[in-house]
Amino acid sequence: MTKIYRLENLGCANCSAKIERKISGLKGVTEATVNFFAGKLIIETIDDLEETSLEIEKEAEKIIKKIEPQVNITKV
Question: In order of start, what are the domains of the chain with their CATH numbers?
Answer without folding.
Answer: 2-75 (3.30.70.100)
